[in-house]
Specification:
The structure holds two protein chains of two kinds. By secondary structure, chain A is α+β, with helices and mostly antiparallel strands. Chain A has one domain: Alpha-Beta Plaits. The radius of gyration of chain A is 19 Å and the shape is elongated. In chain A, helix 2 packs antiparallel against helix 3. Chain A is built from three helices and six strands, in the order H-E-H-E-E-E-E-H-E. In chain A, a hairpin with a 2-residue loop joins strand 2 and strand 3. A six-stranded antiparallel β-sheet of chain A has the order 4-3-2-5-1-6, covered by helices on one side. By secondary structure, chain B is of the alpha/beta class. Chain B has a single domain, classed as 3-Layer(aba) Sandwich (Rossmann fold). In chain B, strands 1, 2, 3, 4, 5, 6, 7 and 8 form an eight-stranded parallel β-sheet that branches. The longest helix of chain B has 14 residues. Chain B is globular. Classes of the chains: A alpha+beta, B alpha/beta. At the A-B interface, helix 1, strand 1, strand 2, strand 3 and strand 5 of A face helix 5, helix 6 and helix 9 of B.
Chain lengths: 159, 224
Amino acid sequence: MRGPKTKEEEEELHLEMHRAADELGKFAARMTIRDDAGISPDRAKKFMQSLLVSVTKECFAVGADLIGHVKAFMHSPDGSLMSSLVDLDTGVQLTSGLSEKSFQQAEVILHVIVHGIWDDKVRDATRIAIKKVIDDYGLKLEVLQDYYETEKSIAHHLK
Amino acid sequence: MKLAQIAGFLGSGKTTLLIDVSRELVQRGHRIAIIVNDVGEINVDAKFIETYGLKAREISGGCICCQIAGSFANTIAVLHNTFKPDIVIVEPSGVAIPWGLKRAAEYSEAESDVHIEHAPVITLVDATRVDLLMSAVKRLVETQIREADIVLINKVDAANEEQVEKSRKLIRGINDHCEIMLVSGRTGKGLKEVADVIETRVSPRYDEAVEKELLKQQYGGAGA
């Protein structure tokens, strides 16, 4: 058994490992959605399904060839809703902890990881999809945080 | 304190399995804590896990096997000092390296009086996507399989026989000594057996020579 001997060789292996990881394009955002007339649990579920499918299709339209994971967590005063998509044919998996009551506002954390395109393309495609779905559902949107810059996972090696 | 890592590529079903196994272990009387780490800056899994009443900590901003190993070690030490779990289940990011994570966990021994024991390293493989994954992210998938003690072929309820057999051959071709189990997060198949593994069995502690050899096999390098 013989491994790399120098610190430089170890660094090179480490960097190579991260380059493999960075074959994945990533984007994440935290936002609130609002409708003063109220959002029913059923509408919330359909919104989440549309959001994940739309984001994924936009990413595929600009070159993505594999879903890593596209998922979103919605938290409202009356419960939460988890949604996850790894295969367009299988569809969005929903796990609902929402009550029967409608709510006016909820926070949504969206996380997109796909293969085949870089972070900037994932960001642009995701933004297009979010706007489209928000408009389709007649909701108000406020993006609280956009994590584009911090998604560059090998940045600590690029001195 | 025993540390159990459930590895696997993105979308392989780690979070679902982790929640179900944790609930099973809680029912058996264990005190369980969960640490989740995602590739990205935001982690949605911890919030989801907590909706099941489980104790979860998220570590974001990098990979816990290297970039933020210190945060990971500190989190384990704090959990030991405050919550005192007997088992910590770790869901590493879908790109983490299992042996690196063992080393990072053992750093916590310098920060508290905890002694880390490792459960067998478990890696999930999504039987329904095995072809796609091997064509797109082959090296990552290979690494996680190569470093596993037990590989779970997941989603067997949705996969056909050919996909399951292909997964089995793939795993055996990469790692000829690991155990292979068939599971389904959706139906609960294999759930109790996975809980048994975490509860009763152990895996060796970190060994630098082993990790270097595994990295060399996977990525090559000047020492090859």
